[in-house]
Amino acid sequence: MKNIHTALVKFDLHSDIKVSSPIALSALQNSYPSSAGSFRPELVEPVFKPMLDFLRQTGSYLMVNAYPYFAYESNSDVISLDYALFRENPGVVDAGSGLRYFSPL
After folding, report:
1. Which residues is 24 bridged to in the sheet?
2. 38 forms bridges with which residues in the sheet?
3. Between 49-58 and 2-10, two packed helices, what is the crossing angle to 10 degrees?
4. pLDDT tens digits, 24-33
5. In 3-state terms, what secondary structure has residue 83?
6. Residue 44 CB contacts under 8 Å (≥ 6 apart), including other chains
7. Could you check whether the bond before residue 33 is cis, i.e. omega within 30 degrees of 0?
């Protein structure tokens, strides 16, 4: 990421093109509900702190390859199929934050 960004700076394209790298949803320790999301502890220091510092410094974005099916599969006892498929549903309220979610993303 840094090498690509350096090349973009060299050609004065860094303001027009942002560099990022998607992370897998499996890099999260918790993903349900969304407000309880957290990274797996063993990845924080070696991967996420440097990556997030780079993204912050360059004004880029964190991308997550999220697959709602996997969230549904591992939590089908608490996630309805309508919720997982982005269909109309009453939503899920996070007891900790009081936030209401209508889809897993």
Report:
1. 65
2. 30
3. 20
4. 888 988 877 7
5. helix
6. none
7. yes
